[in-house]
Amino acid sequence: MPLDQIHAEEESKKPRRRFWPRRKKADKKQEPDSGKEMTFLEHLDELRQHLVRSVIVVGTLGIGLFFVNGWIFQNVIFAPTRRDFISYRFYCWLGKSMGAEGTLCFGPPEFTTQAVGFAEAFLTAIKVSFIAGFVIAFPYVFWEFWRFVSPGLYSKERNAARGVVAICSLLFLSGVLFGYFGIAPFAISFLTSFTIPGVENIPMLNSLINYMIMFTLPTGMVFELPVVVYFLARVGLLTPETMREYRRHSVVGILIVAAVITPPDVASQLLVAGPLFILYELSIYVARRAYRLHEAELEG
User: Which of these ranges, 27-41, 53-67, 149-163, has the smallest mean pLDDT?
Assistant: First the structure.
């Protein structure tokens, strides 16, 4: 064998020196457990699938509720417009217990609701059925949303958000119930009792439905405040000190809202504003705990 060929083989057996640093293995705890990388279009397609499933569930419930729309209107929609509604009876009992019977014993006047448009009754029944279907299906809709978002989170973040579907669903439904039993009776009683000389107050069906939606669905979203505060404080965008600093502003805002939708007396305003105060204070507590976790991660 030639000498130069022997030298070439010996050189090939020697370990070659790397001219770039070795890549460190990624920390599995810091990698999203998404399974594989997805393109933008694949993400859109996955989001579409989650939305389609949510729409199917809401639509199925809406169709089913449409066939019992008479019961829904009679026992749910129109219930706060009658003086025998459970909230009016509770407030009257509470007023008697507190010695303020004349203040808290109230109710709406007798009135009729009109459907003026040619298809207003039919379209309103469809609208109410699908909105009620969304409220009932909210836990499933939020679960589908969480299934889409969670694969992009780190395992540590998913552990911190454990139970978020149940918590958000409970808060949303609690807010809807508070709006229905707490805010709607005061608002309906006040708005239907307010009259202008020479003008007969006859609410339209569509107007009544829109106000009932305004009293309930936004309140359900407002009750998600502790969850929003938790995530903002968890990433360091919100601090409990900031919430304490703006506590007075929030108190003024809550009192203004309560004063607008309730009769002009302190007891009624406190019945509406009290739960909102508690919600804000609970959010400050949540922000304090979440921000401590954020600071511990920065120090670690």
Answer: 27-41
